[in-house]
């Protein structure tokens, strides 16, 4: 299983976003995590599909769109047009979770559900066939730079067990992404608990040497 590092451009310099995307991919990142906030589902406001479309020509790496918006369905279509490769949303923000997942899958894109720290993994059980990824929030959504919530490790183990059982009967592996407070010093613990895709915003973009942080993260992952 190859680990993937997904820098969140929420912590990048918004005045130089195209350059930031190019630089962080050149520094060794696997994909770009794109945090969409609406000041409704979460108490913050970021960027929408037009910014995603503007960034699309700056990289061939996958763009991983994390929707923190309510409702989600119209924006799913807009982000598919804008060039998103992976689209995840919070089940609380969709009236019809199965339908929203189908909008993503029917367009040939990868789909995922995002679980807040207090959201039960039971919400996954009836839609496993439509999931490519599960994103576990290790902070409450809305802001970069928050502290990792330790209970996430136990939830990662429970989620990995559920998805492993599904893989046994379906032959299909569903990835687990973890988002919030991921640093060089806790990435290995998250990996050991079951995560394979790691969002990191402030840990990378607040540093001067993006390649150095990403290399240090990979060195930690190599020990797992
Ligand atoms: C929070 C976002 C995260 C955030 C991560 O709502 O979903 O992607 O940017 O930032 P750090 O790594 O700084 O916690
Ligand atoms: Zn995110």
From TrEMBL:
Its cofactor is Mn(2+); a divalent metal cation; Co(2+); Fe(2+). Pathway: Carbohydrate degradation. The active site is at residues 35, 179. It comes from the Bacteria. GO terms for biological process: pentose catabolic process; pentose-phosphate shunt; reductive pentose-phosphate cycle. Pfam families: Ribul_P_3_epim (PF00834). Gene3D superfamilies: Aldolase class I. Catalyzes the reversible epimerization of D-ribulose 5-phosphate to D-xylulose 5-phosphate. PANTHER family: RIBULOSE-5-PHOSPHATE-3-EPIMERASE. This is Ribulose-phosphate 3-epimerase. It comes from Kingella oralis ATCC 51147. The gene is rpe.
